[in-house]
Amino acid sequence: MTAGGRWRGRSASRRTVLVALPLAGFALVGLLAPLLAPADPAATDLAASLSPPSAEHPLGTDQLGRDQLSRILYGARISLTVTAAVLAVSLTVGVLIGTVAGYLGGWVDRVVARVIDMAVSLPGMLVALAVIGVRGPGVQNLVIAMSLWAWAPYARIARARVAGLRDSPHLDALRLLGAGPGRIIGRHLLPPAVAPCLVYASTDVGAIVLGVATLSFLGLGIPPPQAEWGQMLIEGRPYLASAWWLAYPPGIAITVVVFASNLLGERLAIGDERPSILRWVLPTRPRFLRSRNVRPPVTSASASASASASASASASARAAERQPVGPRSAGPSAASAGTLLCVRDLSVAYPHVGGYRRVVADVRYEVRRGRILALVGETGSGKTSAALAPFGLLDPDAVVTGSALLGAGGEARQLVGAGPHERRLVNGRRVGVVFQDSLAALNPLRTIGAHVDEAVRNAGRGGRRDATRRVTEELLRLTGLPDPIGTARAYAHQLSGGMRQRVQIAIALAGEPELLVADEPTSALDVTVQAQLLDLLARLRDELGMAMIIISHDLAVVTRLADEVVVMYAGRTVEAGPVATVIRSPAHPYTRGLLDAVPHPSAVPGTRFRTMPGRSGAGPDDVGGCAFRPRCPIAIAPCADHPPELLTWAPDPGAPASELVAPVLRRVACFAQPAATTRAPGGVGERDGD
Amino acid sequence: MASGYLTRWTLDTVGVLLALSVGTFALVLLARGDPAAMLAATRAGRPATPEQIEAVRVELGLDAPAPVRYLRWLADAVTGDFGLSLRTNTPIGPEIVERIGVTAGLVAGAAVIALVLGVGVGIAGAVLRRGLLRGALRVAALLATSVPAFWLSYLLVLLLALRLRLVPTSGMAGPATWVMPMLVLGLPAAGALSRVVAVTLREALDRPYVLAAQARGSSPLSIVVRDGLPNAAGPILSVAGFTIGTLLVGTVVVEQIFGWPGLGAYFVRAASARDIPALQAAALVLGGGFILANRLADGLQALIDPRLRRTSTIGPRPPRPRRTASFRTEPT
C-alpha cells in the first residue's frame, strides 16, 4: 500500500472514532456522574422549583427544585448501568448458546437456530413490556426483560462464526491431539465468536438506551426518585410549554446516544465504501474533484509517481481544456480519412484511499470505419476501462480525462465529459456494446424480448408494440438465434452462454451502430461456440460495415478478427500497429512474451512454453519508470527513471515500404528497443498526435 | 412448487404463532404475585380471604397443571375469549375487539406516511450519488430513527399544537387529532425504511445490467423504474412488512401519549396494573399482528422472486442492512 493509502486508511478509522465519540462520552459521563454533578440529583428545594437555567443551576430545576443538570448526568449513569448489565447478560448467554450450538451441529443446532430465528423476529418492546408487566418495574426486572430480547442476535452471530470454523483442519488437528470439547470451545471457538459480537454490542448501545428510556417513560422502567432520561420527560410533561429546560435536554441526550449508535452501526455494517455524512462534514478531497470528468486525476495515491507521470497527467489536463465538447480539428493522424473514434491521452482514475489511483494512463488509439481494433492485455491491464471510458460505461466514481472524438472533421463529437443527454445520442444509436458477463448484463427479471424492444425504442426504431417486436425478432434472427420468437419470451437464465452473447449482440445492433464494442465476447464460451461467434462478428463487420473494438486477452481471437491491435500493460499502451506486423515482429518485450506464451502448432512436442516471470496487476503509477521493468528481460538503466513514451517505430530497414506509409503506424513504448527511433514518415522525431 | 411453498409457508406461520402463544402463556409462570388473589381482591374490593382466593383459583382453572391450562387458554383465546380482567373483573375479549379498530386506523395512517416517505426518500438516496442533498436526506433518516417517539411527540406538540395551534394536543376526535399520532408513529418507520430502500436500490443500480442499459441508451428514469426497483423489490417488500409490524408495536407508546383508546394503551395499562390475562391478550393480538405482517411480506417476496421458494420460509434472507436502534426487533 502506498503512503497515501495509509494516510486515508487512518483517516477513515479516525472518522469511525469520531462517530463513536458520543458513545464514549456517554460512558464517561455515566461513570463520572458523582464527580461531575454539581448537586445531589435527589435533593429537592421547593422554593427553587421550575427555575430557569442560572449560574447555580446550569440547566434549571424541575418541579421539585432538583438540579436538572445533575439529574441528566445521573440519568446517564443509570442508563449506562442497565446497558452494561443487559449487554453482559445477553452477550454471555447469546455467545454461549450460539457457540455450543454451532459446535455441536446436528439437530441441536437446528433447534437452537429455529429458536434464535423466532426470538430475533419477536418485537423487543412487546417482550420487555410483557415481562415487566408480570414482574413489575425496577432495575433488575428491566435487565431481565431486555436481555430476553437482546440475546438472540449474539447467539446468531456466534453460531454463524463457529459453524464456519467447526470443520476446519485446525480443529481436527486439535481433536487428534486429544483436546476435549470444553477446551476446544473455550480456547479456540469462543474468542473468534466473541470478537464480532463485541463489535455488534458497540452498536447495540443505542437500542438499549432507547428501550430503557421508553419503558421508563411509560412508568415501567426505572422508578422514581432515581433520575432517568425517559422518566424525567414524563415527569416534566405538565410543564412542557413553560419550562423548556425540562422538555429538551433529556430528549437531546437520548437522541445523541441513539444517533451515534445508529451511525456507528451503519458504518461498521457497510464499511467505508459508501460515503458517510462525515465525508462532507470532513471532506478529504477538494470539492472540485467531486464531479466527474472535470479535473485530471493527478494521483496522490502514489507517492512514488514520477515527475513525468504527473507531467503527462497535467498535459492531458491541458489537452482536455483545449478541447471543449464539440468539433475540433484533431492532429494530423486523427484527421486522416476514415477515422471513426480517435482517443488521445485517455486516463481513467478511481477514488482510492487517500485520493485517486489511475488504472488507465494516457492511452491513445484510433478505430477506423469498418475495421476491427483489438485491445490486448492481461487481466487488470486496463483494456476494458480504456475501451468503455469514452462511452461513460464505467463505475460512476471513475474520473475520465483526455479526449475521445467520435466521427471526424466537423461532425466529430467529444465523448469525454459528455452529459447524460449527449450519451443517449451516442450509446445505443451510434455505438453498441457487448459486455463480458452476458448473464450479469441482462436484467434477470425481464425477458430477452423486453431488453431488445427497449434497445429498439431507444434507437428510435420502434413503433407500435408489435412493430417493435418485429424488429426485435429480426435482430435476434440476424444474430443467428434459431428461434427468435421463443427466445424473446425467455429469461436470461434460461439461455446458454452462447445464446446470451448473441442476444447481447442483437441488442447492440438495434441502433444500427457504426461501432460495436465487444468486451471479451468469447471468453466464457467453449471452443466451438467461440468459433461460431467470431464468424458472426466477422460476418456482421462485412455485411453492416461496422467498426469494432474487440477487447481480449486471447491472441488467437485477435489474429483471426482484428485489423489493428493495441497491446496494453499496466494501464498504458506498450505497442500498437497493424495486427500482421505486430504479430510477425513484436517490438515490445511484453508483446513478445504474450506471443511466446501461446502454444504453437508447429512446436516440437515437449518444448516448454516460455512464460514471463513475475506477476501482473500493477497500476500505471505504482512503479516509477516503466511498469514492465520488474518482469522485463532487456531492461536498461533509463527504464527505472520514467515511463517510456509511445513513439512511432519503423520495424527494420528491410521492411516493405508499404508499412512505412501504412495508415496505421507502428508505435512502441520501450527504451530498450534499439529500433525505437522516430523514423516515421510524417513527422521526424516528434511525438505524433501533438 | 407454488402450492408446496404455500403449505410450508402456512405451517411455518402457524408454528411461529404457536411459539408466540407458548411464550405469552408462560408469562404466568414468570409472574410475581398470585393472579387469583388479585382478582379476588378486585371483586371483594379489599384484600381477599384464603377461601375467596381458593374459589377464584378453581373458577379460573388455575389448579390444573400448566400444559392443561395452556391448552384451555389457547382454545378459549382462539375463539376470542381471553377471560376476565384482574383489574376490572370484566371480560377482556370484547374490549380487545373494540380497541383493534382504533389501533388499526392509527397503524394504517402511519403506514401510509412511512411507505410514501420512506420509499420516496430512499429512491432519492439511491439515485443521488453524492452531494449535500443526499447527505441531508441520510442524516434526516437516521435522525428520524434515533429520536425517541415520546420526545418527538413533545416536539410536535410544542410546535404544531402550542406554537402554531394547528391541531389539538391529544385525543381522538376527527382528522386534526390524527395528524400528530400518525406522524410520531410513521416518521421513525419512514426513516428506517428509507435507509433500506436506499441501500437495496443502490445495490440493484450497481449491477452490470444497469451499465448494459446505459450502453443501449436507456434513460435514467427508465433504468430506475425498469431495472432498479424491480430487482430491489423483494427486500424492500420484506422490510415494508417489517415496518408495518413495528408500527403495531409503536402504538404502545403513541396511544399512551395521545390518549387513544387502542390496544397499545390497553397493553401498557395492563402491564402497569399487572393484569396478567389482559396483558396476555394484548400481547397475543399485537404480537400476532406483528408476525403476520412480516410473514405476509415474506410470502409476497417469494412470489416475486422464485429463487426464494426453495429455501426455508423462516430465517436469514438476502443481506439487508443491520437494524437501527429503534428498540423494536431486528429485521430478520
From TrEMBL, chain A:
One of its GO terms (molecular function) is ATP hydrolysis activity. Coiled coil: none annotated. Residues 76-265 form the ABC transmembrane type-1 domain. It holds the Pfam family ABC_tran. It is a multi-pass membrane protein; Peripheral membrane protein. One of its GO terms (cellular component) is plasma membrane. It is found in: Cell membrane; Membrane. Keywords: ATP-binding, Cell membrane, Membrane, Nucleotide-binding, Transmembrane, Transmembrane helix, Transport. Residues 343-595 form the ABC transporter domain. One of its GO terms (biological process) is transmembrane transport. It comes from the Bacteria. InterPro entries: AAA+_ATPase, ABC_Ni/Peptide_Import, ABC_transporter-like_ATP-bd, ABC_transporter-like_CS, MetI-like, MetI-like_sf, Oligopep_ABC_C, P-loop_NTPase. CDD domains: ABC_NikE_OppD_transporters (cd03257), TM_PBP2 (cd06261). The chain crosses the membrane at residues 78-104, 111-132, 197-222, 242-264. Belongs to the ABC transporter superfamily. Belongs to the binding-protein-dependent transport system permease family. This is Peptide/nickel transport system permease protein. It comes from Micromonospora endophytica.
TrEMBL record, chain B:
Residues 310-332 are annotated as: Disordered. It is a multi-pass membrane protein. GO terms for cellular component: plasma membrane. SUPFAM superfamilies: MetI-like. It comes from the Bacteria. Gene3D superfamilies: MetI-like. CDD domains: TM_PBP2 (cd06261). Residues 100-297 form the ABC transmembrane type-1 domain. Keywords: Cell membrane, Membrane, Transmembrane, Transmembrane helix, Transport. PROSITE patterns: ABC_TM1 (PS50928). The chain crosses the membrane at residues 9-31, 104-128, 140-164, 176-198, 236-258, 278-297. GO terms for biological process: transmembrane transport. It is found in: Cell membrane. Belongs to the binding-protein-dependent transport system permease family. This is ABC transporter permease.
